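ok so i was messing around last nite and threw this chain in just to see what happens. nothing serious, just curious
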Amino acid sequence: MKKTLYVAVLLFALGNSLYAFVGNPWMVDTLSNPAKLFFSGNSVFIGEVNFKDNAGEKDNPNTIMQNPSLNMEVSILGNIAGLNLGFTSQMVHTNTKGNYMAYMSRHMNIMFAYGYKYFSIGVNLFLSDLRYRTAVFNNSIPILSFFAEGLFKEYVDMPGSVNTNLGLSLIVTDGEYFGFGAYVPEFFLFNSSNSVFDSEKLYKSINFGISFRSPRYDSNDDLIPFLATVNIDTLRILDSNKTVTVGVDLSLILSPDMYISFRNILDFYIFQSEAFTFTNDRYFLHTMSVFFDSTRFRGEVGVDLSPSVYRGESKNVPFFFSFRFIL
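result:
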């Protein structure tokens, strides 16, 4: 039975940062570190749809959709180069009358990678913008209202929101059990007003990740039915304000290319001038999800649980689901 190369270092690939609107929106795993392209194998076309909303928000009269956000991605990826196009539409509730602010973010990511055996380096050019408009949600037809208001109305450009980032990354792995990755997403920044090379921003934007995985095969080269993966990512590791994400996947292996996983993710938000505590929503978030993965399809559904939810003080539980098709 042929063993496949293991590369699980996915900066941004675990944790709530994958689903946040601010910063890079949802992206396919490879885009979290362009150096991973080298290990991707055959060229593929990927289509992906992600949706997220909040359940149980007290101040919003719309009980079906609270603060909905929709992301769609298309990618063409090979082991040397890749192209990704996508957009994210989000509506944020502003008052009890059903008024919203609607945001639209578009991006294009051009990636290149080169490597040898278990080492690779990558570079990417990421172009993005952000637009906004006011919107009124129709509670009687919430789904149609979301698409009409969020996708088909005219937006206004947000000043200074057009950016182009040049990023650099690398991956080192033993090919089976361990991986290490680093990514500098803001090596050089161009925005709508000027071009900036800021050495301080450069080192503060460094992201770092390590990953460990249990063996997939036993001593007889037979597939082991259970797999455990631990990922630890630190976003902006040299900055005084950073995010540390610990993710644990427990998987039931159905075949070499098909599995079902239960994922637990702990996000720790660390601020220089503030004392960290597990009881404050500002510093900690727990994400749980279940996903099915195969060579042609991936589906995931999950929830974000804050400390106030665990204490019974809040019913605001963001949920998400995503689908990915690979050709």
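not much to say yet. The CA atoms of residues 117 and 231 lie 22 Å apart.
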